Amino acid sequence: MAKAAILMGSKSDFAVVKPAVEVLKKFGVETQVRVISAHRTPDEAHAFAAGAEESGVEVIICAAGKAAHLGGVIAAYTTLPVIGLPVKTDMMGGLDSLLSIVQMPSGIPVATVGVNGGENAGLLALQILALRYPEIGKKLKQFKAQMAAKIAADDAALQNELQGL
Ligand code: RP5
């Protein structure tokens, strides 16, 4: 069974993380969810990252806000793919989190989704897992087909509405 991990720098990040947990669960991926902070529990961040591959984790999502170093620190200790999820902040609307995560030094990539992009973080993790698990790829194709059908239905409804103007 596919195995993912989602880490967040603070429990206060959970609302942003939740859509990632939901989409991974919906696709049947075993998902470990932890609060681990690069700054407040750096030893635990190191221990988790160093042992992740051996424990069977295949992809790691790291959510953090402000000086958001969690994804970068985790990526420093593993060759597993790390997805950064920037959390919106009061001061800069999350631009601080986004830049802290995305502007990694050469050699240590963190694949970064948009601010508060929890669902996209989950979907990107699924796309990575689909390389090894064809059944996940199949479900992703169905998911995209459903989205396309909804857009087509919305467009048809809009055309109807416009005729009445
Ligand atoms: C970061 O600081 C966390 O990821 C969180 O987004 C932010 C604020 O944390 P709290 O002060 O709410 O615990 O480390």
Give keywords.
binds 5-O-phosphono-beta-D-ribofuranose, 5 strands, 165 residues, alpha/beta, 2 domains, globular
Give a brief outline of the structure.
With 165 residues, this protein is an alpha/beta fold. It contains 6 helices and 5 strands; from the N terminus they run E-H-E-H-E-H-E-H-E-H-H.
Descriptive notes:
With 165 residues, this protein is an alpha/beta fold. It folds into 2 domains: 3-132, Rossmann fold, CATH 3.40.50.1970; 140-165. The protein is built from 6 helices and 5 strands. It has helices spanning 14-26, 42-52, 70-76, 95-102, 118-130, 134-163, and strands at residues 3-8, 30-35, 59-65, 82-87, 111-112. It has a 5-stranded parallel β-sheet with strand order 2-1-3-4-5, with helices on both faces. β1 (3-8), α1 (14-26) and β2 form a beta-alpha-beta unit. The longest helix is centred in the C-terminal third of the chain and has 30 residues, at 134-163. The mean pLDDT is 98. The structure holds 5-O-phosphono-beta-D-ribofuranose. The site of 5-O-phosphono-beta-D-ribofuranose (RP5) has 9 residues, from β3.
Distance between the termini: 53 Å
Instruction: Identify the CATH architecture of the largest domain.
Output: 3-Layer(aba) Sandwich
Helix content: 40-55%
Q: Tell me the CATH topology of the largest domain.
A: Rossmann fold
Q: Can you tell me the overall shape? A: globular
From N to C, what is the helix and strand string? EHEHEHEHEHH
Structural class: alpha/beta
Widest β-sheet, arrangement of strands = 2-1-3-4-5
**Number of strand elements:** 5
How much of the sequence lies in strands comes to: 15-25%
Q: Could you name the CATH class of the largest domain?
A: Alpha Beta
Which spans of ≥5 residues are poorly predicted at pLDDT below 50? none
With helices defined by DSSP (H or I, 4 residues minimum), what is the helix count?
A: 6
| Unique bound compounds | 5-O-phosphono-beta-D-ribofuranose
Structural domains: how many:
2
Computed Rg: 18 Å
Q: What is the arithmetic mean of pLDDT?
A: 98
Largest sheet: 5 strands, parallel
